[in-house]
Amino acid sequence: MSTKARYPAAEKGCTRIQIEAFERIATGADQGHAPATLAALERRGLIKLQETILPGDFVVWVKVPVVPLSVHHAWCAWCAEQSHTE
Description:
Order of helices and strands: HHHEEH
Structural class: alpha+beta
Strand order of the largest sheet: 1-2
Number of domains: 1
Number of helices: 4
């Protein structure tokens, strides 16, 4: 059973690639997205780029995309309302 749930606001003006990136980020797959895609999602308020330190011997700061709690909550609520039949 596979559902392709989407946060409705993400579909307004977002490309297919941006919607897929948002879905992946919202479910924890925060790597491998094009910088332009991340910038577009950030402009729409669907993600934030949060600085974090990578674990290891050297201090390396990176920006990781995260979905703000209010957006994630709205997306999860929308997902819960969707039919889960194939």
